[in-house]
Amino acid sequence: MSAEKYFSRNHRRPLPFEAIPADALVNSVSMNGDDVDTTMCFHAFWLVKDGIIPGLVKHDSDEVIIFIGADRDNHEALNGTVTVQIENDELALTETCVVYVPKGKAHGNIRFTGLSKPVLCYTYQLTEAYYRCESAVPADPEGTYTNNAVFRYEPLSGIIPEAPEGFLTFLLWLDGQKLAGAPYMETVRFLTTNDTGPETHVHDFDELIGFLGGSPENPEELNGEITFYIDGETASSKESCVIFIPKGVEHSPILVPALAQPFIHFSASNEGVYQR
After folding, report:
1. How far is CA 58 from the centre of its chain?
2. Which stretches of the chain drop beneath a pLDDT of 50?
3. What is the reported pLDDT for 197?
4. What DSSP letter does each residue of the chain carry, written as one string?
């Protein structure tokens, strides 16, 4: 089926980075060029106990890193502290947020401490189909990247998409207006079933769309089901999955015919402004 060629449900690929201790991370789903040609490489995983992903690296692509708290009644709280180093700045994060790392910049030494609940993390590179990195040494002055974390769903336009009452919680919004140089990304949490969705449309940019299960004990499962229209066909999934949509490919609506437990939905692009 043509729709399936855009999907990845790869839950077995090892993460390209390691944590100390080794059991501090739980893999969810990933995508790279082996799954879908020309995609943005993507990894989702859970931080389940205190630890560190050590070392500083750099990429030939901009990178976006998202941290989402697991407490659905207090979705802004990480229930612990995640510290991310970008060049000579350390960002101490205690709320659900998105971090933007420009290409070529040293970053890493991701520490997670005082976690009373797991934290969902996902990361992707805008222009690379495979995860590649090299060791890096900080060079930029302290204070350059202290504002590279964005919190809450607050587009500067003030426009919040319409959604059926009670269907979702808006979590995060990022674009080039919120943070200079950053790409568009938004994240929500689906709370109930839904039989309506955005109308079919196309973009002038590549888009990454994902659905991530809300349980680190069983991260492969959505505990629900989505159906998604793309390229003339409809596909469905009951598993955590990622979909790569090349520019110009018709897609949407997203429907949620079944939901036993809330799960995360995100969309992201390699452009700074979202346009249909």
Report:
1. 19
2. none
3. 85
4. -TGGGGEE-B--SPPSS--BSGGGEEEEEEE-TTTSTTPPPEEEEEE-SSEEEEEEEE-SS-EEEEEEES-TTSTTEEEEEEEEEETTEEEEEEESEEEEE-TT--EEEEEEES-SS-EEEEEEESS-SS---EE----SPTTSSTT-EEESS--TT-------TTSEEEEEEE-TTTSTTPPPEEEEEE-S-BS--PPPB--SS-EEEEEE-S-TTSTTEEEEEEEEEETTEEEEEEE-EEEEE-TT--EEEEEEEEESS-EEEEEEESSSS---
For residue 82, the number of C-alpha atoms closer than 13 Å in the C-beta half-sphere is 29
The arrangement of strands across the sheet holding 97-101 comes to: 25-31, 42-47, 119-125, 63-69, 97-101, 149-151
pLDDT of residue 198: 85
Is CATH 2.60.120.10 what the domain over 3-269 is classified as, yes or no?
yes
Whether the link from the prior residue into 253 is cis, omega within 30° of 0, is: yes
Supply the pLDDT for residue 40. Answer: 96
What token pair was written down for 219? Answer: 């991260």
Strands 42-47 and 263-269: unpaired
Residue 83 to residues 96, 230, 231, Cα–Cα distance (Å)? 13, 38, 40
Angle at 106 between CA 100 and CA 108, to 5 degrees: 75
Q: In what order do the strands lie in the sheet with 251-259?
A: 233-239, 221-230, 251-259
State residue 253's pLDDT score.
Answer: 93
